[in-house]
Amino acid sequence: MTDPLTPVLTRRWQSPRSWSIRTYEQLEGYQAMRHALNAHPDQVIQLVKDAGLRGRGGAGFPTGMKWSFIPQGPRGAGAKPKYLVINADEGEPGTCKDIPTMMADPHSLIEGCIITSYAIRANFCAIYVRGEALHCIRRLNRAVDEAYAKGYLGRNILNTGFSLDIVVHAGAGAYICGEETALLDSLEGRRGQPRLKPPFPATAGLYASPTVVNNVETIATVPAIVQGGSDWFRSMGSDKSPGPKIYSVSGHVERPGQYEAPLGTTLRQLLELCGGMKDGIPLKFWTPGGSSTPLFTAEHLDTPLDFEGAAAAGSMLGTTAVMVFNETVSVPWAVMKWTEFYKHESCGKCTPCREGTYWLLQILQRMVAGEGTEADIETLLDVCDNVLGRSFCALGDGATSPITSAIKYFRHEFVELIAAQPAVEHPEQLADLVGAPA
Amino acid sequence: MTLPEGTPESYGPVSGPEEVVWEAVVEEAGPASPVFDELTRQRSKEIIARYPQSRSALLPLLHLVQSVEGHVSQDGIRYCAEALELTTAEVTAVVTFYTMYKRERCGEHLVSVCTNTLCAALGGEEIYARLSAKLGVGHEGTAGEPGAPGSLTLEHAECLAACDLAPVLQVNYEYYDNQTVESAEALVDALVHGERPHPSRGAPLTDFRTASLELAGIFDDLDRTVEGPSVAEETLRGALLAAERGWVAPPMPDAMPPLPAIPEKD
Which of A410, B52, B172, B193 would you label with B201, given CA atoms 20 to 30 Å apart? Predict the structure, then answer.
């Protein structure tokens, strides 16, 4: 049985100047890189497969398998240059784990990039950081400079014959660029709009070459896996969702913050760690992993928060961005605010998402203003049905999650909004009628 | 309405179009504005050289022109197009897609208030409303003469990824955590009067144009600006609680285990 908290990624965050290479190396940094670079790249891929590491960006795709899809060999796609792209465009509402990681411990990401690039035989790696994370961009640039100065980046790293360049690339304010193919288009200097898949980035990614796109937390975990081995990694979490995970608890709790715990931790356990609900006001609804993951309620307090547990309960693990809302918050209002976000961030490429998010917002704003009708609830569900699974990428799907789950658990709140409206069509006209001659 | 006689076939065999040479309808206004001086050109070359393909440098170059002019102007668009051998239409399409490229000249500082659901539930909407009323501007409006000392551009932002520190706002993309209406007002007052209160985390506050230069990947003084607090109390809560209770991850083996053998190919 593991402890309730298992600091692995967060273990260096308390150290003075934790972001400097000096502190990082004092705390065993860059040892894993040496170990990995002495092995065959395929051994590194096998290790990550054995460890069962799954992507921390939301989808939970097995990382080792993703790496093994990169074609290798002297002919065909294998002969093209390969690229590693780090998705550091953290922007999913509620998600706030990658920015503290890059701010406090950028070298764990850089070391992970070196090991991963070696495994997939990439000689160029781009870290696509959200533009609004300016201090992370400084820290990463400094970390890259320090790694070059030590000979951990550049040509012929530590005389292994392996060469790697890393560039830190700032985004410019577009949530959609967290979608991996939109990110690649953006990195190529275009509007960040998703691409049709297939072909997948593994065969035709950056510059139409084989590319791995991984999240920050995923790659920052890799050095620890090399250090501890797959059995050690699997001693935390569950069989299908192993390892530690940063749970970002925010909202109406006493002590919001970053809590690194084994996958499968429940909200009840997280609430104990963060001191319970703020001022004792009861829980109403929460998200397991950002606004794109369907809402949960108090009945899901004991749902294990791993990939399988969240899915079995009708949601998704997402980014483990646990946003907690108490009884004072109106569900239709919260859903309207999230829909404003999706409408703003829809890239406009596909019709279901562009038009759907627009009309969903119109209806929700009308309802929250007390001008909704009975038919609006069905219209919302109908529009969601035409967006979910019919959009080009997952943004459209995500936009429907808060709405459909809110109606599923809190339909009465939407109905009450309607009940609150006056029975006459235009109440303001009543005033004119009062005192008017009969 | 008169229809042409015959059918398309009667005009003779269908052939491909002749090679079309496009001529610009509007004459490009020569080399871009002289505000983009030799230093900017040098920096542009440096940025372009970082990437395997030059077009990847477009986003950083747009941050660069924004650092020169305080927004992305038509001149800035032309400059980027020339530098990367793109059309101005291609560059414009990109500029208008991203919210961080401002088409109007910004104030000395850009104040971004998160009004996404979680921050809004904890007071972000009131903060935005109060600042908007105080400054007398709406979304992307600028109080004061743009670019002049003390001028501020206000915007409401989507989730700024600091939800454990909600409600948050940013000035020139530096974080000010756990805000209240009063603290936000005090911050704005200070900015208007030329003061630069230190952000909750990160480097000392500069101005919007300096921040844009850093976003382009140009750092004049990284030794100094890289310093500053990394973490807030909230960031460390899990780690501190674990230390207090003696909770740790399972111990790693004393020596790094050998990597697994490569499986036999089927």
Answer: B193
| Predicted complex: ipTM over 0.90 | yes
Q: In what order do the strands lie in the sheet with A321-326?
A: A257-262, A244-251, A321-326, A283-287, A296-297
Residues of A in contact with B47 (CB under 8 A): none
Minimal Cβ distance to B226: which of A6, A91, A139: A139
Taking only residues 143 to 182 of chain A, the set having a beta carbon closer than 8 angstroms to any beta carbon of chain B reads 145, 167-175
In this complex, is the C-beta atom of B159 within 8 Å of any C-beta atom belonging to chain A? yes
The answer to whether A329 and A323 are in contact (CB under 8 A) is no
Q: Which residues of A31-65 are buried (b: 16+ CB within 10 A; e: fewer)?
A: ebbebbbebebbbbbbbbbbbbbbbbbbebebbbe
Residue B90: closest CA among chain A residues belongs to which residue?
A190
Kindly determine whether residue A258 and residue B164, on different chains, have CB atoms separated by under 8 Å.
yes
Å between B92 CA and nearest CA of chain A: 10
User: Are the beta carbons of A334 and B97 separated by less than 8 Å?
Assistant: no
Strand A82-88 to A122-129 pairing: parallel
Please answer yes or no on whether B164 and A250 come within 8 Å at the CB atom.
yes
In this prediction the pTM is: 0.93
Q: What is the largest CA-CA distance in chain A?
A: 99
**Inter-chain residue contact A7 with B163, CB threshold 8 Å:** no
Angle value at C-alpha B8, between B7 and B13, nearest 5 degrees:
125
| Alpha carbons A144 and A126: distance in angstroms, whole number | 11
From first CA to last CA, the distance across chain A in angstroms is 82
> In whole angstroms, what is the distance from residue A423 CA to residue A421 CA?
6
Q: For an interface test with A, give the residue of B71, B259, B264, B265 to mutate (most A CBs within 10 A).
A: B259
Q: Which of A91, A168, A325 has its CB closest to that of B159?
A: A91
Tokens linked to A95: 């998600």
Q: 3-class SS at A424? A: coil
pLDDT tens, N- to C-terminus, chain A (438 residues): 799 999 999 999 999 999 999 999 999 999 999 999 999 999 999 999 999 999 999 999 999 999 999 999 999 899 999 999 999 999 999 999 999 999 999 999 999 999 999 999 999 999 999 999 999 999 999 999 999 999 999 999 999 999 999 999 999 999 999 999 999 999 999 999 999 999 999 999 999 999 999 999 999 999 999 999 999 999 999 999 999 999 999 999 999 999 999 999 999 999 999 999 999 999 999 999 999 999 999 999 999 999 999 999 999 999 999 999 999 999 999 999 999 999 999 999 999 999 999 999 999 999 999 999 989 999 999 999 999 999 999 999 999 999 999 999 999 999 999 876 655 555 555 555 554 444
3-state secondary structure chain B: CCCCCCCHHHHCCCCCCCCCCCCCCCCCCCCCCCCCCHHHHHHHHHHHCCCCCHHHHHHHHHHHHHHHHCCCCHHHHHHHHHHHCCCHHHHHHHHCCCCCCCCCCCCCEEEEEECCHHHHHCCHHHHHHHHHHHHCCCCCEEECCCCCCCCEEEEEECCCCCHHHCCCEEECCEEECCCCHHHHHHHHHHHHCCCCCCCCCCCCCCCHHHHHHHHCCCCCCHHHHCCCCCCCHHHHHHHHHHHHHCCCCCCCCCCCCCCCCCCCCC
Q: Which residue has the tokens 């994370």?
A: A133
Q: CA of B114, closest CA in chain A: separation in Å? A: 11
Separation in Å, CA A430 to CA A424, A427, B246: 9, 5, 69
How many Å is the Cα radius of gyration of chain B?
26
Inter-chain touch A39–B59, beta carbons under 8 Å: no
| Residue with token string 């239409």 | B89
